[in-house]
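Recap from last week: sequence in, structure out.
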Amino acid sequence: MIERKKYFERLKENRENGYPKIITGIRRCGKSSLFTLYIQYLKEEGIPDDRILSLRLDDDTAINLRNPIALGNYVRAFAKGKEMTYVFLDEIQKVSTILNPAFHDGKILLAKKGETEEGTISFVDVVLGLSREENIDLYVTGSNSHMLSSDVRTEFRDKAVEIPMTPLSFEEYYRYFGGDRETRLTSYLIFGGMPKAVLETNDVARRNYLKGLFNTTYFSDIIERNGWRNEMRNLDECADILASSIGSLLNVSRLANTWKSDRRDDVSSYTVDKYLRAFEDSFLVREAKRYDVKGRKEIGASRKYYFTDIGLRNARVDFAYEDKGPVLENAVYNELLYQGYQVRVGSFDSYSKNEENITKRTTNEIDFYATRGVRKLYIQVCLDVDKKETWEREIEPYIRLNDSIEKVLIVRKDIPTSRDYHDFLVMGASEFLLDYISKDI
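Predicted structure tokens:
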């Protein structure tokens, strides 16, 4: 089993803090395995089996506990009269939302979509209620179709600890495999960090697994959650467009136009927007907003979209691996987030005079403006800078900025770290991903 040290430590840090620990993230990224490791740790700490309750609510043996009232009663009965008990509820989304029996002659009736919150009982009520018990330390996971980060923020607000989990970062991937950095990075940029794909023994199995995840897992979840029974084809098309556009500035109107020109199919901006939101809510993609690095504010409707896992992105383009630059950019974005940075697309306007002495405005883009605490970085990502025109294009925004923030140029090659005559930092991707961004200053 692959160690997920960062998330494991978050669970330890929040042990017995009085709040439920809610692990969110894309399906199949290792949430259930994290529970297994943590339960093993508790046992090694001396916690006896009769004070640990682990329920897989997607198992047929737990069917009766999908009634939220029955689940709450069962857990309380288990913990009654004991010292601190540790309760793990895996796949909490399997718990049904029911109408409050107090208003329906004690009958258990399933709620319909759109029923008012005041008249229903759901997993949210169970989680909050159990977390208030003094002798229950509660841990919860849920699949993306019902256990979304947006749901946690809305329903739990400041009453829970959310631990967003992702597929393996490159740091975790390399820590597991070791060996030559460049070889490992090449493999990671193709197959990504979904744990089961990482553990497969051959590339054919990895490809098949990743390609199958979309229809059998992610799309099925999105369709179930939103009731889009006849929209599989459109979801498929939208995923393909996003996969072919990583690293490009997009907005809803542009995506709709791309859809029309490439697919010969009219899709409204409203429809595109709802698909984007569904993909984001299910953790398939994440958006990087544009940020005016001079005006210090977010700007415009355009933004970039990156896949949470590179292997899933590559599966959408059938592993046609020509877009190595955007794929590396996606990897850098994911690793920065994993290391705790806030990441946005840098943008600013500069002005110059042309030959007719007319002022010309130029909008400059920087791949990433990343901040963590007092550390601030501008980052440009490219495959190589062997050609003079490539080098000049990449550093031009840096020259125009002319401020004191560290400016980094990442290249795919394994090169010695150096500084150019502008004092810009130039380094290879593996060193940036494994060494540079994890350091504190």
